[in-house]
Amino acid sequence: MKIELQRLVYLHDLLRELVVRDLKVRYKRSVLGFAWALVNPLMFLTVFYFLFKVALALDIPRFGPFAFTGMLVYTWFQSSVLQASGSITDSRELIRWPGFTAPVLPVVTVTTNLVHLLFALPLLMIFLFFEGTVPGRVTLLLPVVIAIQFVFTLGLGYLVAAGNVLFRDIEHLMGVLLQLLFFLTPIFYDISLVPERFQPMYRLNPMMHLVQAYRVILLDGTSPTALSLLQLSVLAVVLLVVGHTVFVHLSYRFVEEL
User: Fold this and answer.
1) In terms of Cα–Cα distance, which of 99, 102, 112 is closest to 27?
2) Considering Cα of 76, then 239, then 84, then 207, what sign does the dihedral take?
3) How far apart are the first and last CA of the chain?
4) Which has the higher per-residue pLDDT, 22 or 194?
5) 85, part of any domain
6) Residue 27 placed within a domain
7) Cα dihedral angle (16, 18, 20, 26), rounded to 10 degrees?
8) Phi-psi region of 131 (alpha: psi -120 to 50; beta: other; left: phi over 0)
9) Is 20 contained in some domain?
10) How far is CA 85 from CA 12, 196, 249, in A?
11) CA-CA distance, 65 to 42, in Å (whole number)?
């Protein structure tokens, strides 16, 4: 028991130090610093607002927070998966360090991008306030949805991180696939606008359900259905177990492949 506790303390400290290091390196000598975490979604939001609220005039109430919520959720997912795909190949020195815990690297990537999401949430709350929406106690469910997305993203991160060591095309392929998935996820348009014949295909997209869960809590002030949260949780846990198992199985080849 004492050894296991020491191991947990070690992993906690290692994760914290690597996340802090990643954040410092990313924003080193940057004038705006953490504000860059908001620049990209805000720029996209500005373009989408003009296109779909002014030019095309989609009838979506509170379009600003509606689109911004989807942008933040998907940006966390997309950035984490893309960076996780290179988390092993870009850390050769650490992987070759005897005794280093390689599975912590995808966790660092997902956690670092989670910090960006948490940093942007107050701005989203300001958007909601100006639109006349004040989230109630149902907001307490938000950590549950965040935890589900964390587990889901980490599971996929493990798969692409391990796969990219053997096949370097995966990192480039994920960039293309995630960009396509961005447009197939109702981020700047509502799922109700999708023709009925295509909706079953949309419902196979886990990110659609995650984005909807955030919006239901923040914009509608109600809780997602217990069934939808259960389905997302099961999918996330299964993906994490599979992803971690594959990662550990292939990790013995990391040093020789790098």
Assistant:
1) 112
2) negative
3) 35
4) 194
5) yes
6) no
7) -160
8) alpha
9) no
10) 22, 35, 17
11) 11
* pTM for this predicted structure: 0.85
Tokens standing for 208? 């659609």
CB 65, CB 131: distance < 8 Å: yes
Over residues 139-145, mean pLDDT: 91
Structure tokens at 162: 């391990």
* Cβ atoms of residues 108 and 190 within 8 Å: no
For residue 205, the SS3 value is coil
Domain count, the chain: 1
HSE-up of 30 (CA within 13 Å, CB side)?
12
Of all residues in the chain, the percent with pLDDT exceeding 70 is 78
Q: Which residue has the tokens 């290692």?
A: 14
Q: Rounded to an integer, what is the distance from CA 90 to the centroid of its chain? A: 20
Task: Examine residue 64 and state whether it is found in any structural domain, yes or no.
Answer: yes
Please choose, from the candidates 233, 58, 228, 250, the residue with its C-alpha nearest in 3D space to the C-alpha of residue 161: 250
Domain ranges, residue 234 = 33-257
Mind giving me the DSSP string for 84-139? HHTTTTT-HHHHTSTT--TTHHHHHHHHHHHHHHHHHHHHHHHHHHHTT----GGG
Which among 11-15, 54-58, 220-224 has the top mean pLDDT?
Answer: 220-224
Instruction: List C-alpha distances in Å: 120 to 37, 83, 133, 157, 238.
Output: 8, 19, 17, 22, 29
Write the DSSP symbol of residue 224: P
Segment (H or E) for 238: helix 226-251
One-letter identity of residue 95? I
Confidence class for position 219, pLDDT limits 50, 70, 90: confident
Please state the φ and ψ torsions of residue 102, each to the nearest 5 degrees. -60, -35
Tokens coding 156: 């996929």
